[in-house]
Amino acid sequence: MNMRCVASSVSAFLLCLWSSWCFAVELAPDKQQLLDKISRNPKQVIELVSAVLADGQMVANEEAEYWYVLSDAYVAVFQGDKALEAAQHARDLAASSGNEALLHWSNIKLAEAYDVSSNAAKGIHHAEQAFSWASQNKQLGMQVEAMIMLGSLQLTLGNYSEALNYFFDAYLLSQQSPDVTDIPETAHIAYFIALVHEYQREPELAIPYFQEAAAFFRATDNQVELSNALFGLGRAYWNSGKGEPAVTHYRESLAISEEIGDKQGAAYTIVDLVGVQLAKREALTGADMKEIKQLLTQSIDAFGEVNNVNMQLSAMYKLALAHRFRKEYRAGLAVIDNALDVIIDHPHNPNKARYLELKAFLHNQLGEFEQAYQTAKRQMLASREQRERNDEARYQQLRAEFELDKTEYNNQLLAAENARKQAELEVNKRDFTITILAVIVFASISCAIGVMYCSVKRQHKITLKLAQTDELTGLYNRRQALTLLDREFKLAARSEQTLCLAIADIDDFKQINDQWGHTVGDEVLAFVGETMRQCFRDTDIIGRIGGEEFLLVFPGGEKKAVKASIESFMQACATLPPELTRYDGLSVTFSIGLTNVDTSQDLIASMANADNLLYQAKAEGKCRVKVA
After folding, report:
1. Dist. CA 387–CA 470, nearest whole Å
2. pLDDT, tens digit, for every residue of 572-613?
3. How many helices (H) and strands (E) does the chain have?
4. CA-to-CA distance for 250 and 572, rounded, in angstroms?
5. Taking burial as the number of CB atoms within 10 A of a residue's CB, which of 131, 335, 432, 526 is the most buried?
6. pLDDT digit string (tens) for 355-389?
7. Count of CB atoms situated within 10 Å of the CB of 576
């Protein structure tokens, strides 16, 4: 299992399997030598075996063994489709030659290939077949390998508890069978246990298992798995707040990946390693910067070769951040512009807004305020478009669920109608009985209609709420907040009532994300949303209109009273809940622009005025309300 593939998320997220061990598989000596060589040089094995298979005819069992070795080699270099094709050839040939053991080893390899091909659910059946046959025939080595494979598939599917159960069962069986030579070592299984703990954000529990695996792979000169285990150790140490050992293990993993020609593995390691180095921020030296630039350029090129756009952009963003921390703003702009050129071919990339945000900051630092302003406008537009895409996707999902419920409802009505008609056909034969049946059918139809009507109404309410509400804070989303603001603006114009408008922005929110992570940032936003609901009136309109930006509308409110209410809210935010007080140095303050809405002018002018006041509050030192 190569956990570096998990780093490519952020879509979501995608798991890849590494080459498995298969000690118990009985191959001819020449095939076994090729199988052992995969851990050191899988690409060379692919070339050798492909040449042999292209040469000509051989008996089915021998050809099955070659296809099995080729599938294992393709798995080692994460070429899932080719691994799947090779494993299917091996399985079919083993079945035709009557070699049941090789057939079920090929089942395990087929399951592994499905996992690498991002289709883990299809692999479960093949792994279960191998486990069942191994259990019946007392093949402990295959039994443990099948358990490891089933755990890996469940891990890919996000079923961490089930995955951990499979891995621990395999680990214990290996421990209890020290005299069985064809069973995998516990150190192999320890790697998988470590992965599950890492995914469950339990790095301290993961470290000893990664250490056990790394020590074994080092002793057996298994370079591919050693590189992966060292990468896992580096990430676990970093997530535990231990930067120095994290860097040590990342660097060793990188050196091994480069030595064995694993360009993608090296690229993933570089992104993590640079992330650790960037934690130094302004303490970065010129030598640090030179190394970071060299490493990230290598990583960007590697990701570009396989069209891994998300990781390529991530590496570019880290390079631009490094230039920012070194105050090399012009160089940072060049990197960001290159990243935006890549995004042009992927217009719906969810990270476009943060690249524009960094670009606006760099222009601002260079004193290019007009460019900074225009870029900030583009960033706000990109953020809005991304939110709208997310809202639309969520709406379409809910609509699909609603249509499914509607179809089920129609099917139930049709079934009830068919039952009613059948009852009518029997009226002439059994009057009394059919009368009773008709009453039952009518009651069933009534109940079905009542139940489904309530279900449809409830689903409609849920859909409407989700379409109008920001999921994280529970406040109105941007679209609904602006709609309600327009309504209040028109009402105030007709009735000549006052209307106050404020735009609030959390101070230094990006630093919160950078220092403690986006999970803590989400907790801060949730806390702010709850505090706003408690501090403001039910008649006030409160909505989240940006990442850390909020719109506050006070119908009939006077500036003096509204300012006092806002200051009371800011004081409430100063007292953090217990889940946030554990982050030393974390504080939640706001810069806020407050103004009376002039109903004789365009509403956009009032919003722009509030926005300008917000930026004045930022410029004057933050944590304040600027009123005009």
Report:
1. 10
2. 999 999 999 999 889 999 999 999 998 888 899 899 999 999
3. 25, 5
4. 43
5. 335
6. 899 889 999 999 999 998 999 998 898 888 888 87
7. 16
pLDDT of residue 18: 39
Q: Tokens 């946030």 appear where?
A: 580
Cβ count near 265 (within 10 Å): 26
What are the phi and psi torsion angles at 195 (to 5°)? Answer: -60, -45
Q: Are 315 and 7 in contact (CB under 8 A)?
A: no
Distance CA 103, CA 176 (A): 27
Q: How far apart are CA 234 and CA 18, in angstroms?
A: 18
Tell me the H-state helices in 469-586.
478-495, 509-516, 518-535, 559-574, 578-581
Distances (CA, A) of 471 to 60, 391, 401: 58, 10, 18
Written as one letter, the residue type at 188 is: H
Whole-angstrom distance, CA of residue 478 vs CA of residue 388: 9
d(CA 606, CA 497): 16
* 3-state SS assignment for residue 627: strand
Indicate the SS3 state at residue 593.
strand
- Tokens read off for 627: 């009123």
Which H helix or E strand runs over 503?
strand 499-506
> Nearest to residue 197, comparing CAs of 226, 171, 223, 224?
171
